[in-house]
Design a protein that fits this description.
The structure holds two protein chains of two kinds.
Chain A: H1 6-16, E1 25-30, E2 33-38, E3 43-47, E4 53-58, E5 63-68, E6 71-73, E7 79-88, E8 93-103, E9 110-120, E10 125-135, E11 142-144, E12 147-152, E13 157-166, E14 170-179, E15 184-193, E16 198-207, E17 212-222, E18 227-236, E19 240-250, E20 255-264, E21 269-278, H2 282-290, H3 295-306
Helix pairs in contact in A: 2-3
Chain B: E1 2-11, E2 14-24, E3 29-33, H1 40-48, E4 55-60, E5 63-64, H2 70-76, E6 78-81, H3 93-100, H4 107-116, H5 121-124, H6 135-149, E7 153-157, H7 165-180, E8 186-190, H8 194-197, E9 202-207, E10 210-215, H9 217-224, H10 235-238
Parallel strand pairs in B: 3-8, 3-9, 6-7, 7-8
Antiparallel strand pairs in B: 1-2, 1-4, 4-5, 9-10
Helix pairs in contact in B: 3-6, 4-6
Classes of the chains: A mainly beta, B alpha/beta.
């Protein structure tokens, strides 16, 4: 891959699953610099005039295409805020892979705050994958504060896979979505925190249109002395269906605050929420040990399954 | 071959198992029955290493495994099917079978194990082993994990508990097949079901933490048929 060193390549593989230049549209950003870009006939990526980020414009009817926009930071002390706007036409079916990896071996904090806005056209279908990962053993913190704003037009559909598995010291994730008639959103968030990490994740999904729907599920594992706050809210302003769920495994001295919430402003809004926090069940460990796994291997399997 | 020598087990001063001596030879299908609270499940858990005896010795193929933990016993070839199978969020049926098989498993092989317990692999292999599965389904998957392990000694703790009658008929068939195909291994089943008791090489009646009666099925079954140790098959389902 062009203009990327070994650490940056490893980070790209972690956050975007890429081992070579992808087919389709892409924009690679490394240490605040453009490291590679490709637009296609249907997907145009351009820098914003003020240099604050990129615009991704997807033409009506674009199907079975993908956009990769990974970001990597491998130098200590970088702090950046990037605005990326996605303008998705009507009747599209597209996969968008974002994600940020930070390797910080230095003593200064490294921080990437990505603000992604999605304007999804009528009847379009989007799968959005966002992975965050940190590595490096420096005293400097690895900080990621993603903001995602989604606007779903009539009968559109968005599936969001939001994953933070390892190495991010501090994150404040804020996701909002507004849905028009017939639009649907599915969110699957996976969070694992360890050490002294802190993760705050907030979702506010507003169902404005008739027959709109949301299913927001966050699964988290808080290990060691880490802390997670999950604040998942669904608001129903029309005849709609909404479900929100926080499901967490607590370990060691971890702390978790789960706040699923609902607001109904229409008599035909059908909303429900659930939340569960618990440690790994002893019977689960014993069962896997009876299959020949050690206690530690059993624990790893249970966590990786839970966060799959 | 499994040998239990003078096994005692107590919890907070209460004796649950009181001096059990038992040998289970290779190629034997042994059913342990007896009243509830008699110590059957505890005995099974002692053999698997989930509980440790207060005193006594457990020998597997001549090796003293009394102090071996669950993982070591599993690696020595003991398998255990829980009375209430454990469920996992996110772990799929194929993942569980793969772990049972020691880490490597082909789709075709997984299909064989699932077919053997009457489940179509296509429908189940990617299902999560979570609360979306019925009691009968999760019980059959539990048995499939034992098949995938190719154990020397398999212990089934009340396989009939908590399943519907329809699934139970299939379950009996699975154990009848196991009985037919037993090679260089042995099976211990804790059960009250007459159909399972009737295919045993040996029946052991456990009550108050002690072996009260034991012997060939044709001798023991008539002696216990009208006690709580035996639940007879539903007359209507026999038709």
């Amino acid at each position: 891959m062009f203009k990327l060193d070994e650490i940056q390549r490893r980070l790209i593989a972690e956050v975007a699953g890429l081992h070579k230049v992808p087919i389709g549209a892409y924009n690679f950003r490394a240490n605040s610099q453009l490291a590679g870009r490709n637009s296609t006939a249907n997907i145009e990526i351009s820098s914003k005039d003020d240099g604050s980020g990129i615009d991704i414009r997807i033409k009506d009817g674009t199907k079975n295409e993908s956009v990769h926009i990974p970001v990597v930071l491998s130098a200590s002390g970088i702090k950046e805020t990037v605005y990326n706007d996605f303008y998705i036409g009507e009747n599209c079916d597209v996969v968008i892979v974002a994600g940020c990896g930070i390797d910080n071996c230095g003593n200064q904090d490294s921080e990437h705050d990505g603000i992604h806005r999605f304007f999804v056209g009528k009847n379009s279908k989007i799968k959005y994958v966002e992975k965050h990962y940190g590595s490096g053993d420096g005293a400097g913190q690895r900080i990621l504060n993603p903001v995602t704003e989604v606007s779903l037009n009539d009968d559109s559909f968005m599936e969001m896979e939001m994953v933070q598995i390892k190495g991010v010291d501090s994150t404040k994730r804020v996701t909002t979505a507004e849905l028009k008639a017939g639009a649907k959103i599915i969110v699957r968030e996976r969070l694992m925190t360890h050490g002294a990490q802190k993760a705050f994740s907030t979702y506010k999904i507003t169902l404005d249109g008739e027959n709109s729907g949301a299913d927001v599920v966050s699964r988290g594992v808080a290990k060691e002395k880490s802390y997670q706050k999950l604040d998942l809210c669904v608001i129903g302003n029309a005849p709609c269906n909404g479900h929100t769920e926080c499901d967490s495994i607590i370990m060691d001295e971890g702390k978790i605050l789960a706040v699923p919430s609902l607001e109904a402003n229409h008599v035909d809004a059908v909303l429900f929420h659930e939340a569960a926090i618990g440690k790994i069940a002893g019977d689960q460990l014993i069962k896997l040990m009876t299959l020949g796994l050690t206690a530690q291997e059993a624990e790893e399997q249970i966590i990786s399954g839970f966060l799959k | 071959m499994l040998e239990l020598k003078d096994i005692f087990f107590s919890v907070e001063g209460v004796e649950i198992i009181r001096g059990i001596n038992l040998t289970v030879e290779n190629n034997k299908f042994v059913v342990i029955t007896g009243p509830n609270g008699g110590g059957k499940s505890t005995l099974a858990r002692l053999i698997m290493g989930i509980e440790k005896p207060t005193s006594g010795k457990i020998i597997l193929d001549g090796q003293d495994i009394t102090n071996a933990d669950i993982t070591e016993r599993a690696k020595l070839g003991i398998g255990f099917a829980f009375q209430q199978p454990v469920r996992f969020k996110g772990i799929e049926v194929f993942d569980l079978l793969k772990m049972a098989a020691g880490g490597k498993l082909t789709f075709n092989k997984a299909c064989d194990y699932l077919s053997a317990v009457g489940l179509c692999a296509q429908d189940y292999i990617n299902r999560e082993v979570n609360s979306s599965l019925s009691g009968g389904e999760v019980k059959r998957i539990e048995i499939a994990t034992i098949l995938a392990r190719k154990t020397k000694l398999s212990i089934f703790d009340e396989p009939e508990a908590g399943i519907d009658l329809w699934s139970f008929k299939h379950l009996i068939q699975i154990f009848e097949d196991m009985r037919q195909n037993i090679i260089n291994s042995s099976i211990i089943i804790i059960s009250h079901q007459e159909r399972i008791l009737s295919i045993a090489d040996e029946i052991i009646v456990l009550a108050d933490g002690q072996i009260k009666n034991r012997g060939a099925a044709e001798k023991i079954l008539p002696e216990i048929i009208d006690t709580e140790s035996v639940i007879q098959e539903c007359e209507k389902l026999k038709r």
